[in-house]
Amino acid sequence: MDDGPDEAPGNAGSSRPVSLLQPVADTVRALGRRLLREARHGALAVIGPTGHPAASRVLVATDACGNPMILISDLSAHAAALAADLRCSLLVGDVGKGDPLAHPRLSLSATATPINAAAPERPAMRERFLSRHPKAALYADFADFRFVRLEPVDAALNGGFGRAYALEPTDLIDEPVAGLEEAGIRARDHMNADHGDAVDQIARRHGEPHDGWRIVTVDRSGFEIGRGDRLRHVAFALDPAGPGGFRRAFVALLAEASEAKGA
After folding, report:
1. Which residue from 114, 137, 121, 107 is spatially nearest to 65, judged by alpha carbons?
2. What pTM did the predictor assign?
3. Which among 51, 133, 190, 262 has most CB atoms closer than 10 A?
4. Residue 45 pairs with which residues in a beta bridge?
5. Does 119 lie in the same domain as 216?
6. pLDDT tens across 206-215, in order?
């Protein structure tokens, strides 16, 4: 990520460093969470055997707390690098039209946690990953493939020129809540089966004009809706860990979408 100079323009020769970091507001945290949870792929950087960094494109999903996770083969160079040094970095953020550096991106410094086949959390990770990347079912259960959770230690968010922020893990990742992941799966399946029109209405509220959206994954922060190769994160206004759970959180979003439609 381009962090810019250590001194502000026009201060050449000054010995006093000028921070280019901006204050972190809730809108910045929301952008960071969206970038992380909407990511379908990212650039994974590891420390290679010579000590030089090495980068590779990987498929990305998030666990129920928002930690990014990847699926890699033990035969890959980046798997070998992580076996030797668990420190890594992940860059996410899609590039749209125009200047690539004008679009927001999030860079995480993280510690990798490989998940073995017998780990109790593997089935839930597998379900979330394949919900986002169904074609990965072709190889997800091969003996040489494993899921790896990337646990952030810090993050840098660049929202475009002059919009640089340093984030903490707590700005992006939720604390686990007993039973919430299972409740989220039930809520997702119910919404997709019985309330597809409501999902489309919420999608339109967030700038997506076409129908046919489905909820892909759900967590405490919100949920991801998918249509073809497009993925959008929708944040909850109400905490589903509170009274009323996911039902109350979805009803509030639908009420907001209905009000916007009638305005």
Report:
1. 121
2. 0.89
3. 133
4. 55, 89
5. no
6. 999 899 999 9
